[in-house]
């Protein structure tokens, strides 16, 4: 995923399906300087940081 798109999704009022390694995640924060995102796994509620490039919009 592009950094700009991740920021659009984070700011969106709608629910947009984003996956990381096949798991649905919610984008909590986007870090422009490191091109990473803090995401929450919607199945486990675990929060972790991942490269934005590894996120996929479904």
UniProtKB/TrEMBL annotation:
The portions of this protein that span the membrane are: none
Enumerate the Pfam families for this protein: SspH
Q: Which InterPro entries match?
A: SASP_SspH (IPR012610)
Keywords, comma-separated and alphabetical: Sporulation
Q: Where in the cell is it found?
A: Spore core
GO BP: asexual sporulation; sporulation resulting in formation of a cellular spore
Q: Which GO terms describe its cellular component?
A: endospore-forming forespore
Please state which protein family the record places this protein in.
Belongs to the SspH family.
Name of protein? Small acid-soluble spore protein H (Minor)
């Amino acid at each position: 995923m592009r950094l700009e798109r991740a920021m659009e999704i984070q700011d969106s009022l709608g629910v947009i399906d984003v996956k990381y390694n096949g798991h649905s995640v919610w984008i909590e924060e986007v870090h422009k300087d490191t091109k990473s995102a803090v995401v929450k796994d919607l199945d486990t509620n675990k929060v972790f940081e991942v490269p934005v490039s590894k996120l996929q919009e479904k």
